Amino acid sequence: MIEINDLSKKYKNTLAVxxxxxxxxxxxxxxxxxxxxxxxxxxxxxxxxxxxxxxGTVFIDGKNIEKENNRTKILEKVNFISPYVELPKKxxxxxxxxxxxxxxxxxxxxxxxxxxxxxxxxxxFKKRKTGELSSxxxxxxxxxxxxxxxxxxxxxxxxxxxxxxxxxDYIRTYIExxxxxxxxxxxxxxxxYF
Length: 194
Description:
The protein is α/β, with parallel strands linked by helices. It has one domain (2-191): Rossmann fold. 36% of the residues lie in helices and 26% in strands. It contains 6 helices and 8 strands; from the N terminus they run βββαββαβαααβαβ. It has helices at residues 40-47, 68-75, 93-103, 109-119, 135-147, 165-182; strands spanning 2-11, 14-24, 29-34, 55-60, 63-64, 78-81, 153-157, 185-191. A 4-stranded antiparallel sheet has the order 2-1-4-5, with helices on one face. A 4-stranded parallel sheet has the order 3-8-7-6, sandwiched between helices. It starts with a strand and ends with a strand.
């Protein structure tokens, strides 16, 4: 489902990612672990086609993400969350989910939003502006956004950042169950301490 070959990214004199290669099979969950600043977020940016690699290739579902005619088709099957990408702050939780659901052409959008808000304990915040939420609440809204289109591939950059330990455990279990039920391939980037 995902194949990375000798991927590197250099910013001026800084090598952010150096010659990484890996494959992720369909319907698996793989962790990309490392300390802060080791290139996890940059790697996810290259997988999404948001950052151009200095060298190497990214194939998703057998197609090169760098080819413009492939990117749109690939991204219809993908979604992501990152603590570095904020949702529009002046929109409510419900409005944000409607916008992203429409972007992905989600059928039965109202029902899908209600189910996600129930599952992720967001109902009490549905009319609140996203910019007024705590970082943990924003994180759960971002996860709901990432699941709105039931993606085949889910890229999660620090999905439990800013969450209380019990909420983090719930979210990890929820993601595992979602992946198992939907056959989703997941790359989960997380900090580990050495």
